[in-house]
Amino acid sequence: MKQSLYQHPGLLAPPQIEPILSGNLPPGFDSSTCRSVYVGNIHPQVTEPLLQEVFSSTGPLEGCKLIQKEKSSYGFVDYFDRGSAALSIVTLNGRHLFGQPIKVNWAYASSQREDTSGHFNIFVGDLSPEVTDATLFACFSVYPSCSDARVMWDQKTERSRGFGFVSFQSQQDAQSAINDLNGKWLGSRQIRTNWAAKGAYSNDDKQSSDSKSVVELTNGTSEDGQDKANDDAPENNA
Questions:
Q1: Which of these, 23, 30, 162, 167, has the minimum number of CB atoms within 10 Å of its CB?
Q2: Domain RRM: where (predicted)?
């Protein structure tokens, strides 16, 4: 059955991914329990069985629902485990179905948020253009206390500014992420990780959400990194 996935005329691989403006993940997002993803910008010719076949490539599905619209459909996919859901975001976001790139992000209730002002923030630099909030969060969600991930976008060009911030409830997890993931490949580049300069992650960096998404991906409160400032702050990032 897996072979038919790659032979289907609606699938073109590998996709040429352009930067897709993803909505922001909510503060307090529980990465340890979420097993559902939202799929947007789906071509009208995509059927529910095809959507199920595509997303089952990253793990067994508990459910799949497609809401068909005349111009652009959307849907929700439920996995049995969080790891498969995270993998689908990393590997299927931007995949072309019938020539149209789908948008894959975490699905959650808009009320699922908490104050993250007391969390520990790290700076992530040298992000490749195709990395979205969801991709960044999926990368760092291997650490249980990861609570938020944001790629900073240029509001005029709607392109990534090449850096972002990740928040953790645990200082130890934040330090481990800095130590373990600095220099690791994410997308087409090796990322740089360090403590965020205090005050660097503020209201000025809030990103606009995708108002067209059925799942409202909203902004949370501003965060000031609790940890020490350093020379790797975004304002010093070349």
A1: 30
A2: 35-109, 120-198
CA dist., res. 31 & res. 7, Å (int): 33
> And the tokens for 111?
């009320």
15: phi then psi, degrees, rounded to nearest 5? -75, 150
Domain hosting residue 53, numbered range: 29-106
The verdict on pTM exceeding 0.70 is: no
Q: What is the 3-state secondary structure (H, E, C) of 56-82?
A: HHHCCEEEEEEECCCCCEEEEEEECCH
CATH (domain of 52): 3.30.70.330
Judgement on whether residues 55 and 138 belong to the same structural domain of the protein: no
User: For residue 208, what pLDDT band results from cuts at 50, 70 and 90?
Assistant: very low
